[in-house]
Design goal:
Blueprint lengths: L8 H19 L4 E2 L1 H8 L3 H11 L10 E2 H13 L5 E6 L3 H12 L4 E8 L8 E2 L2 E5 L3 H8 L3 E4 L3 H13 L4 E4 L13 E4 L2 H13 L3
Parallel strand pairs: 3-4, 3-7, 4-6, 7-8, 8-9
Antiparallel strand pairs: 1-2, 5-6
Helix pairs in contact: 1-4, 2-3
C-alpha cells in the first residue's frame, strides 16, 4: 500500500469528500462506482480520481464494473480514523463559536474525543459545555500533564491564539483545529494545523457570485 503520508495536501483535502460520497452510496445500496461517475459527483475528472486513489493505497477498479464502494470506504476509514482510537482533544474558548464547535465534536463520529474545555472568562469557568466542565486556562499545564491531549481546538481571538499556541506546543499538543485569525502553521511548521477561516470562505463565495460569466 502506498504511504498516505506521501500524498499531497490537495489529495488529503479531498479524502473526506470522497468518504462522504461513498458513505451515501453505501447507504443507498450501491456496491460499485466508476471513476467517471465518482468524478461527476466530486466536480473533478476521472483521471484525477484515479490519480488520487493511486496515492492512498491498493485501490483497483475492474473494467466495466468500477471500484468497490466497500473497499474504498475501508481504505478511507483506515486513513482518516486509524484503528478507531479517538484523538483526545481540548477546546480553548467557550463562547458562541466554541459552543457550536464543541457540539459538533461531541455529536459527530469524526475520530475525536473532547476531554476538556478551557476559558478565562469568569462567566464561563465552572459551567458545563456538552457535559464537560469548563476549566480556567491557568489549569492547562496540570491537565495536560495528567491527561496528555493531542489536539487543541482554538475558538479564541487572534491575540489569545498567539499567546497560548506556544504554551500548548510545549505541553505536547500535536495538532490544532484553529478558528482564530492567527495562522499557526507559520510559527509552528512541525505541528499539524488546520486553519479554518470562515471569512475567507464567505469572501470566496462573494467573488464567485460577483464575477460569474
Amino acid at each position: 500500500m502506498n504511504n498516505p503520508g506521501k500524498a499531497s495536501l490537495p489529495v488529503i483535502k479531498r479524502l473526506p469528500k470522497y468518504y462522504r460520497y461513498l458513505r451515501t452510496l453505501k447507504n443507498d445500496g450501491i456496491t460499485s462506482i466508476s471513476s467517471r461517475e465518482l468524478a461527476a459527483q466530486m466536480g473533478t475528472t476521472a483521471s484525477q480520481v484515479r490519480q488520487d486513489f493511486n496515492c492512498i493505497g491498493d485501490v483497483n477498479g475492474r473494467q466495466g464494473i468500477g471500484y468497490s464502494v466497500e473497499n474504498l470506504l475501508s481504505i478511507l476509514e483506515h486513513l482518516l480514523f486509524g484503528n478507531g482510537d479517538l484523538l483526545p482533544t481540548i477546546l480553548i474558548g467557550c463562547g458562541r463559536l466554541g459552543k457550536a464547535v464543541s457540539r459538533f465534536i461531541t455529536t459527530d463520529t469524526n475520530g475525536y474525543k473532547l476531554i476538556a474545555a478551557f476559558d478565562n472568562s469568569p462567566s464561563e469557568v465552572g459551567k458545563e459545555i456538552n457535559g464537560i466542565r469548563i476549566l480556567h486556562v491557568d489549569e492547562l499545564e496540570a491537565f495536560c500533564a495528567e491527561h496528555k491531549p493531542e489536539v487543541a481546538v482554538f475558538c479564541v481571538p487572534r491575540s489569545g491564539a498567539e499567546e497560548l499556541s506556544g504554551r500548548l506546543v510545549e505541553l505536547g499538543i500535536k495538532g490544532f483545529w484553529n478558528f482564530s485569525h492567527y495562522d499557526l502553521s507559520v510559527p509552528y511548521p512541525e505541528v499539524v494545523v488546520e486553519n479554518v477561516h470562515l471569512g475567507d470562505s464567505l469572501m470566496s463565495l462573494g467573488y464567485r457570485l460577483r464575477n460569474q460569466d
